[in-house]
């Protein structure tokens, strides 16, 4: 079976019909002028958001080696993300995040590319594109509706449980204030970040947060960061939702690409149904509800990289540039996945002898040092012990991951699949991801005696690779559906039953050892699991009541321990006071063990700013001990002992 799409040849008109040279030069001058005048006009009328689809339309028309609109759109999105990560190194110094500067430069680059190739509309679609779009739309509805039905505090509550989203939001806002990457500024300038974490967070991979900051400026048609923290955080949350939807789209498209042009529509439908179920009811949704935008973006890039390496674009230059941008995007987003990307690209380079291709050599020489920026920048904050550290990620569903890997492997090797170069490359990708998983597991078992946080993180990329390679199952199903007519109905029944069993496996349960019933996806879609809406609403209430907190910190003791914990954390984010709220949310974390009145008094003593304690429920208690006071009693006692440091605010219960 063919593994390559039909060549996208550049058919030009006869020489006699070419426009005169002076007319062509005039056209290019007009295009260059429009590249800057149009962004200037949209900025003046407050419609900069229109430039985002306009830019993508330009990218779509200039693609080669991709026949349909969906092909070009998905590849254009991931290419643009990688290019923006690179461009941010320049725009962090020049132009900052000004929409006119960013858009003018981007459109100028498109005009320059258009001097070498004509803009051409893609073929509308093929059957698999409709299936991919339908699957992505279903995931989008299931993801967007739970957020749309909740108020602002409720939306915060959905992702509050992971707590890391607080740091991600603060970093997004810090980048907005800098007008560029935070790691390009001295640690002392990162005033929104806590001193204890400034160096580590400042150097954290920032590609997705920089992208959010750019999109935020275009959505608001503004050349400054948002003065309203509520708008900024709400925008961040919706961009986070969009990131998950894009992940679903990229994974489904990648699986359809791996299936190849010869797969029957019914077979592709069956495979994509399993992939969609795996995305929304499997590991990716567990990542989503814990608040990891960088990891979701990294998984999307890893999926696209797997697809274009298994079945490369027919245009060699576009292929090597795309792979280079994807590797850079992965480095600037979630470099834990870089070893997988390195092994995958190495296997592709050996298969195609890329050292003989000068475009590949040039791209490698340029991309390698850029991709090394984030890992090298974090060397001072990284140790081998970090790979055994704990985190707030939900335990991975290892049985479900094993099922996906086995299904992907079956699709790759069945019916003589390894005779195909694409299937062999797919098998290599699956082996590379599984080998890295095994290496991480062995390291953690030898050092701490069990698998932990980063083992689960690596398992996520193995799951994504397996979901992408599930497209190979369409080939197996196509072979069965291509049998004699009497056997066709039996094949349909077998295929439908297999899809229902596997998809049901994800829907019914999830989590550690497939024991969370119903699965995280079902719990999100149905509202069974709302996260911590109480904590989110406390945070919104406190931040609105006390919008200025330069010399104080809000401590939420109005309810149960987890509500207090999340209320304190996200109030500091909304007040842009995470620098001081960080210590208090750590102190209130229920998972850190019981606290006594002496511990609370010590936390007050070391606080560099005034502590404003909020109480409501007179029976609420988080302190340990047989004679431990209630929250209200403890707050009153501290105010009596430290009148110059503690302020107590009592709210209706």
Automatic annotation (TrEMBL):
- Keyword Mitochondrion appears in the UniProt entry: no
Q: Which residues cross the membrane?
A: 26-52, 72-90, 97-115, 130-149, 237-256, 268-289, 296-314, 320-346, 358-379, 399-418, 425-446, 458-476, 488-509
Protein keywords: Membrane, Transmembrane, Transmembrane helix
Respond yes or no to whether keyword Oxidoreductase is given for this record.
Answer: no
- Name by which UniProt lists this protein: Uncharacterized protein
